[in-house]
Design goal:
Elements: H1 3-23, H2 29-34, H3 41-52, H4 56-68, H5 73-101, H6 106-114, H7 116-149, H8 153-201, H9 204-209, E1 222-223, E2 226-227, H10 230-240, H11 242-248, H12 254-271, H13 273-285, H14 295-302, H15 306-344, H16 350-374, H17 378-402, H18 408-428, H19 438-456
Antiparallel strand pairs: 1-2
Helix pairs in contact: 1-8, 1-15, 3-8, 3-12, 3-15, 4-13, 5-10, 5-12, 6-7, 7-8, 7-15, 7-16, 7-17, 7-18, 8-13, 8-15, 8-16, 10-17, 11-15, 13-14, 14-15, 15-16, 17-18, 17-19, 18-19
């Protein structure tokens, strides 16, 4: 029997068992949604970094590195830059509000700041976008299992969906945080060992340095579709992504937020070059790969010794699963709090909310598996989410926290028109210079609309200012 397959199966069974064991301690919705606000700096750091190093940062980023070269650094690097802003600016301010008003989701904050209309609008965007990112993570799992076993895309997505649903449904954020510690350890060990072996097997650094498939392959700022332009799409998304922000809600105190999130940012900065290097190594070893998402699995399956490759594949498998549970957490809590409790059953007890959350996790996992079967690539799936969240949520979140005069009408208009601008630009093409991507146009329109609303809405008509943080 395939040794790598056995290793992955045993590992999967182990993390599911750990999740079920920890899940026994979760008996209330508060425990499921915010882990009882008990996460210390170490747990917050590990669960955030584990979520951020997912399919896009492994399979997807390696494929971009294979295709575009050094400029692929900006895929993960933009997330690191966004995380710095979150650690020292957005995160602490938001955390103070969550504790003061017992908020559990980003939707709770939007309702508190702007009212139910904004909560519902962002909820709708979130549900659509997050399903795509969850399908992207499961698609990454299917690539790994396909290389290891020859399993079809369908079976790969099903297996990934079953594993993540099983342990997440048991205990929500608390389960995910502890399972993420194991997953992050496997990632760091697996990739740190696999990279030097893969580089050596490719002929060492001279062989990689000799690569010149395109004229801009070694251009750090821009190459192909990659480069600093990712900042507009990924930077804001990693500042306001509900899946990331709601992990902060589970922190023990404000100091934990600053330390845990800043360590996550540091980890992303250090990791950002890893998928780029692996993509270049794959370009040396396998120059004719038709589907770039296969670059990383090929390197780990055929470019290093079996034992090293098995550990590396387990690391990548961990990356996809840990990121998937973060998205499932975001979706499940949003549907329960932003739809079920807010509009359907406001009097639902803690126990009832917990039951609904667990049932929804199963349903969401099944829907994501179906979407993953039809997605073209990991990056295609993730781009939908990052663009929707970055454009739709970034300006209202920041204005709500730091601009007391920001109104509900301004927040709704900036979200709707910003997303509309993205859709129009994608439909008719990119006006202006090439670096003005749909995400950049959307952010520009969103900022402009909010600025206009601040200029025309009198202070008395604006939404109530938040309590001083």
């Amino acid at each position: 029997m395939n040794v790598t397959l056995v290793f992955l199966l045993v590992y999967s069974a182990g993390i599911v068992a750990l999740g079920l064991w920890i899940g026994r301690r979760v008996r209330t919705a508060e425990g499921f949604f915010v882990a009882g606000r008990s996460l210390g700096p170490g747990l917050l750091f590990s669960t955030m970094l584990a979520a951020n190093i997912g399919a896009g940062s492994t399979v997807g980023a390696t494929g971009i590195g294979y295709r575009d070269g050094l400029a692929a650094w900006w895929w993960v690097g933009s997330a690191a830059i966004g995380s710095v802003v979150l650690a020292f600016w957005i995160g602490p301010a938001l955390y103070r509000l969550t504790v003061r008003h017992n908020l559990r989701t980003v939707g709770d904050y939007l309702d508190h700041r702007y009212g139910p209309s904004m909560r519902l609008l962002i909820g709708l965007l979130l549900w659509v976008g997050a399903l795509f990112i969850l399908s992207g993570q499961l698609l990454g799992v299917s690539w790994i299992l396909g290389v290891v076993t020859g399993a079809s895309k369908v079976w790969g997505c099903v297996i990934g969906g079953v594993v993540v649903t099983a342990y997440f449904a048991a205990g929500g954020l608390l389960t995910s945080a502890w399972v993420n510690v194991v997953q992050l350890t496997v990632k760091l060990i697996g990739l740190s060992i696999a990279v030097p072996f893969a580089l050596s097997a490719a002929g060492g650094w001279p062989a990689v340095a000799a690569l010149q498939p395109t004229g801009t392959y070694w251009n750090f700022l821009q190459s192909g579709a990659s480069g600093w332009v990712y900042l507009a799409m990924l930077g804001p998304a990693f500042v306001v992504s509900p899946g990331i922000l709601q992990k902060i809600y589970g922190a023990r105190d404000e100091r934990t937020v600053r330390i845990g999130v800043s360590l996550n940012a540091l980890g992303l900065f250090l990791y950002a070059i890893v998928p780029v290097l692996l993509g270049m190594i794959a370009r040396v070893r396998f120059p004719d790969i038709a589907v770039t998402d296969m670059a990383l699995p090929m390197v780990l399956m055929q470019g290093v010794p079996t034992a090293i490759g098995s550990l590396g594949l387990a690391a990548v498998f961990s990356a996809e699963i840990s990121a998937a549970d973060a998205v499932m957490f975001m979706l499940t809590t949003s549907v329960v709090r932003d739809l079920y409790v807010r509009f359907v059953q406001p009097s639902a007890s803690e126990a009832r909310q917990l039951l609904v959350a667990r049932a929804l996790a199963v349903v969401i996992g099944a829907v994501a598996v179906v979407l993953a079967m039809t997605a073209e690539s990991v990056i295609t799936a993730l781009t939908v989410f990052y663009t929707l969240m970055g454009v739709g949520l970034f300006v209202p979140m920041l204005a709500g926290l730091f601009v007391p005069r920001a109104s509900t009408a301004g927040a709704v208009a900036s979200t709707v028109l910003g997303v509309a601008a993205v859709l129009v630009v994608q439909r008719v093409g990119h006006p202006g210079p090439p670096w003005m991507t749909p995400a950049m146009w959307g952010l520009l329109v969103s900022v402009a609309v909010m600025a206009v609303s601040l200029a025309v809405v009198r202070p008395a008509a604006a939404a109530p200012a938040r309590p001083s943080a």
